[in-house]
Design brief:
Biotinidase/VNN, alpha+beta, 37% strand, 2 domains, 471 residues, Vanin_C, 5-stranded mixed beta sheet
């Protein structure tokens, strides 16, 4: 009798687990011959692997106006692709999510639209989320900031595009713990391609990204021909199991950081523990840095203590941002500072980095940001992040015993400062005035006069020599 109870208990446990998990598949995008013509065969392969949801890759990225126009002219097979995917999803009995490119007539011109289309097990379209490829387009192609659908295995998925992760207020997530994200070719911030990792970590969310990436509470992904398959816990990740897996960037950000406050990090002082407070606008960031070893070789990078409080551009949107970070720099001046190292390591081991900032509260959200030159796993042993709550006045991030750090810090979104450019290019004047005021009152003015004085000293020296010779 006891044996029967054990068997029944085991069956019940397995049944409960089965209802709390699902299998998702993405396509290995490293394969050079993946295209829309192979969608049907990929769907059939996923069906044979008992996959519940397959996310197909975006057929192509449009990076230039020339390519944009030619793509519109050649795009005549949208209906054919839709039918092929629908038939294959029905035959394989799986959910399929595909981001397809579609022609769209808007304001007396043709526009290229990214359409994230969801097919159910019967091949029916149950959700469509559209957005223009051209970020400057004025087409109103969708009535919401995200798509969503609910499956027959009891999981509700949100459907986003990559830039939505930064744009969308986390309050609009509405308890959804599983998201499907379509990637885009637009690079916006230094960590834009990695931000989905930080977003998922902070909100305990599973992400399935069409560029071949899983994030969240999953078993070890399994490779099968052209597919990568993983089993997800449907309720998202738990605080106990949360880890951050950081992959090196494929390219480094080189852009104008003239509106940032950047203080050089005193590496020599940091061997004994180094503290500094840096402010801009309404935010002050307290930094404590201690290096266990800076290596025997000359450093190929310096580090800067970076603070920003203002508005940054994202396509045709301008978003409120606050950030505190320790950033690897290739130069001393902010216009030559970029995240990156010419070598595969920085020869610096950080024993401890502690960052604390008085970030704005209210309509805001805060995330950790980490970039390294080698793949790294961050967990409770070497990383801590504490957002604002009723018991704290600061957002804090702490890193222990880590090397090859390119960037570590806190990224804050202030949604109350967001605004969009209008059809005629006019923008929120109050935001511009505030941004200009911050710029004028910041260290940029001091940097300008320092630069001017360096130039004038040379001129004064030459003139002095000339005058002495004439006397």
């Amino acid at each position: 009798m006891s044996f029967l109870k054990i068997v029944l208990f085991s069956l019940c446990c397995n049944l409960v687990r089965a209802t709390n998990t699902y299998n998702a598949a993405i396509v290995d995008v490293s394969s050079p011959d993946i295209n829309t013509g192979k969608y049907a065969s990929l769907i059939r392969e996923a069906g044979e692997r008992d996959v519940d949801v397959l996310v197909l890759p975006t057929p192509r990225n449009v990076a230039s106006e020339t390519e944009f126009d030619s793509c519109i002219n050649e795009l005549d097979n949208y209906d054919e692709i839709m039918k092929a995917v629908s038939d294959a999803a029905k035959d394989a009995r799986i959910y399929v999510v595909a981001q397809l490119l579609e022609r769209y007539s808007c304001q007396n011109r043709e526009e290229l639209i990214r359409s994230s289309v969801v097919f159910d097990r019967n091949g029916a379209v149950i959700s469509v989320y559209r957005k223009p490829v051209n970020s400057g387009s004025r087409c109103n192609t969708t009535s919401s900031k995200m798509g969503h659908f609910t499956t027959d295995f009891g999981v509700t998925f949100g459907v986003l595009m990559e830039d939505d992760i930064i744009l969308t207020n986390v309050k609009e997530v509405n308890g959804i713990k599983n998201f499907i994200v379509s990637s885009s070719s637009e690079a916006t911030f230094v960590f834009a391609k990695h931000f989905s990792t930080f977003w998922a970590y902070t909100n305990n969310i599973n992400l399935i990204i069409d560029n071949g990436k899983f994030i969240g509470n999953i078993d070890v992904p399994k490779f099968s021909n052209n597919l990568i398959v993983a089993e997800f816990e449907s309720y998202g990740s738990s605080d106990i199991s949360k880890t951050l897996t950081i992959t090196p960037p494929t390219s480094y950000f080189i852009g104008d950081m003239s509106q940032y406050i950047i203080r050089p990090l005193n590496l020599e002082a940091s061997t004994k523990g180094y503290t500094e407070t840096v402010c801009q606008g309404n935010i002050c960031c307290q930094f404590y840095v201690k290096t266990n070893s800076i290596g025997a070789k000359q450093q190929d990078v310096t580090y800067g203590l970076v603070v920003f409080d203002g508005v940054q551009n994202l396509g045709n949107s301008n978003i409120g941002v606050q950030t505190c970070s320790v950033v690897a720099c290739a130069g001393l001046y902010k216009r030559s500072c970029f995240v990156g190292s010419e070598k595969n390591n920085t020869n610096i081991i950080f024993d401890n980095i502690l960052i604390k900032g008085n970030f704005s509260n209210g309509n805001t959200a805060h995330f950790p940001t980490i970039l390294t030159t080698a793949q790294s796993v961050m967990n409770k042993e070497n990383f801590r992040f504490t957002p604002l709550n009723k018991n704290t006045k600061y957002v804090t991030a702490e890193l222990y015993n880590t090397e090859n750090v390119l960037s570590f810090g806190i990224f804050g979104r202030d949604y109350s400062k967001d605004y969009q450019t209008s059809e005629f290019g006019s923008i929120n004047n109050t935001s511009i005035i505030n941004e200009l005021s911050d710029y004028i009152s910041s260290d940029n003015v001091q940097e300008f006069f320092d630069y001017l004085w360096i130039r004038l000293r040379v001129l004064i020296f030459v003139v002095s020599i000339y005058v002495l010779e004439m006397m």
